[in-house]
């Protein structure tokens, strides 16, 4: 377990910025009330076995007592680096993204299962959509009851969605909470 270097930090922040925008400041400066200290600590990013973790500094200090081969996880795994060196957000980052999301999409109840099976979001599935979404922006997908279901990338802007036919793809699927069941061995 080690801190991220400059290149890794920029890759993680660029990916997070795509989804949360200027709210990235809230993620980085979020106070941590864990541990024995009365003063709130901070959260930090750590790399362990090609996975990036978001954990409080007090937890990181306590984890140094565990040998690296014996340490399985630490805090919240928000993403991983591929063998090619690119960074991918994982479904575990959903709570962090949902709390700070810049662009949101709400699905109709009859379309939630389709998204949870790994399919893209169609225009006919949209319940609501935030304004000023551009194609390529990161989008967090919610149910109509404001339960975060997953995240993806906008295929069309908000204005283009209004003119789109009902079978047109609005959000390209990246991750959803159904992965906890479909890919439980890999998580």
Automatic annotation (TrEMBL):
One of its GO terms (biological process) is ribosome assembly. The keyword RNA-binding applies. One of its GO terms (cellular component) is nucleolus. InterPro entries: NIP7_N, Nip7_N_euk, PUA, PUA-like_sf, PUA_sf, Ribosomal_synth_fac_NIP7, UPF0113_PUA. Keywords: Nucleus, Ribosome biogenesis, RNA-binding. One of its GO terms (molecular function) is RNA binding. Residues 103-178 form the PUA domain. Interacts with pre-ribosome complex. Required for proper 27S pre-rRNA processing and 60S ribosome subunit assembly. Belongs to the NIP7 family. It comes from Cajanus cajan (Pigeon pea). Pfam families: pre-PUA_NIP7, UPF0113. This is 60S ribosome subunit biogenesis protein NIP7 homolog. Its main location: nucleus.
